[in-house]
Amino acid sequence: MKAQVQQVKMCIGGEWVNRNQKIDVLNPQNNELIASVPSASKEDMINTIEEAKKGVKIAAEIPVHKRISILNRAASLLSERKIEFAETIAKEGSKTIREAEGEVNRAIETLQISAEEARRIKGETISFDQRPGSENRVGYYYRFPIGLIAAITPFNDPLNLVAHKVGPAVASGNALIVKPASTTPLSALKLAALMEEAGLPKKVLSVITGRGSEIGDLLIENEDIRMISFTGGVETGQDITAKSGVKKLGMELGSNSPAIVLSDSDLDQAVESTISGSYAAAGQNCIGVQRIYVEEDIYEDFKTKFVERTKNYVIGDKLSPDTDMGPLITEKEALRVENWVNDAVENGAHLLCGGKRSGAFYDPTVLEQLPEHCILATEEVFGPVVILYAVSDLNEAIEKSNNVDFGLQAGIFTKNLERAFQAIHKLNVGGVMVNDSSDYRIDAMPFGGVKNSGIGREGIQFAINEMTDPKVVCFNLS
């Protein structure tokens, strides 16, 4: 007898609803059907927005101590259900069970930090008497919630990137509509149910599942949406920018992240850090390492160690604790990565290892001597592919690192503080990690980039700043 597929409802204004039209959620490892979720209609989106507009007033009236309590309770519940959430992340997405457990731990911290930051939303007094004629005026400003926020999230961190929208929105007294990736909606829906259990009032949070082509424009163009928080690709980000109208935009749009390895660095540390930074989540990571610039005198040693370590990377069953890397999110994505690599090799790049695909699995791949006109040189591969370059010095490494239309994060390995600070000041990115790869982040830090890597910053305190506006109050005491 065929096993019954789990039917997961979506959350509209705190009500859990089903629909006849479905989106299948597949395990990319084997295309196993693990669940189905409603495919929302345009009418569903309109209804969701109307319910969320009611939620704006409810959210703004939740006292700060209650927001703190809800977020801490949610973090506690998530901690109790860590294994359950990790298994969901691993099954619906690309992450191994170890990577999924790490994501749950980060989501717990994201909610905890959101609770802490809720009490720190402050204004300050203003010296109005700095202007002649205003001697009798006193005042201040405070921050107030902007209202209704739309959050559009990707597949690669299906829980924590949702938490990075939900936590700050709740902390700052806003209502929120989450549109998760159609390939990985289960984690977002589970988080919504958990927030409800933690005491979040109905209508404050909605999670609507559906295809962007059907419901996306209704969400981003609606005038009642006061902010769009989007994590995803550049083309979609540009489309949102063109259609959104007058509202706040927060966008993290990916990168083509560099790492610089100088001759005075700890070579083994640099290899191990860049290996992890290159292949975590099968390379589907916005701050994952894609380009590594190595000083010439240590290039061959670095290459030998890096390739050897890459060849020993364990690919296989995501739920096995022994697995280092699982599949890409779909076979279509694996085919795209395969085509990019084949194009590079056909144009003269040297394949050092990898370059093989099986279904949605793509072997960790290392290239060198990549021609500058190849797509791999300038665009975000979002797969387990790394390009090695030999450079004469730090200046060349910095120049080549900056020679793309992205600038999210970069890493540099050196024991020399002067060289580290040279890179810090000259790399055109949103974050520089010294003696770490570009793939390092804590959830409290300001996170975002320059150029095509996005607009604004995430990280709870900084997201809250984006999700609130200052209101000035002035008293004329004359």
Low-pLDDT segments: none
Main sheet overview: 7 strands, mixed
Main CATH class of the largest domain: Alpha Beta
What's the architecture of the largest domain, going by CATH? 3-Layer(aba) Sandwich
CATH topology of the largest domain: Aldehyde Dehydrogenase, Chain A, domain 1
Cα distance, first to last residue?
A: 84 Å
Family: Belongs to the aldehyde dehydrogenase family.
Keywords: Oxidoreductase
Pfam family, one: Aldedh
Catalytic activity: (2S)-3-sulfolactaldehyde + NAD(+) + H2O = (2S)-3-sulfolactate + NADH + 2 H(+)
Structure report:
With 478 residues, this protein is of the alpha/beta class. It folds into 2 domains: 6-253 and 454-473, Aldehyde Dehydrogenase, Chain A, domain 1; 257-442, 3-Layer(aba) Sandwich (Aldehyde Dehydrogenase, Chain A, domain 2), CATH 3.40.309. Helices cover 39% and strands 23% of the residues. It is built from 15 helices and 25 strands. It has helices spanning 42-60, 64-80, 82-92, 97-118, 160-171, 186-197, 212-221, 234-243, 267-279, 296-311, 331-346, 375-378, 394-401, 417-426, 460-466; strands spanning 6-7, 10-12, 15-17, 22-27, 32-38, 124-126, 137-145, 148-152, 175-179, 205-207, 227-231, 248-252, 257-261, 289-295, 350-353, 357-358, 361-362, 365-368, 385-391, 406-407, 409-413, 431-434, 450-451, 454-455, 468-476. The strands form 7 sheets. The chain has a 7-stranded mixed β-sheet with strand order 15-18-19-14-13-21-22, sandwiched between helices. It has a 6-stranded mixed β-sheet with strand order 10-9-8-11-12-24, with helices on both faces. The chain has a 3-stranded mixed β-sheet with strand order 1-5-4, with no helix packed on it. Helix 6 (186-197) links the parallel strand 9 and strand 10. Helix 1 crosses helix 7, helix 5 crosses helix 15 and helix 9 packs across helix 10. The protein is globular, with a radius of gyration of 23 Å. The termini are far apart. The model has no long low-confidence stretch (mean pLDDT 97).
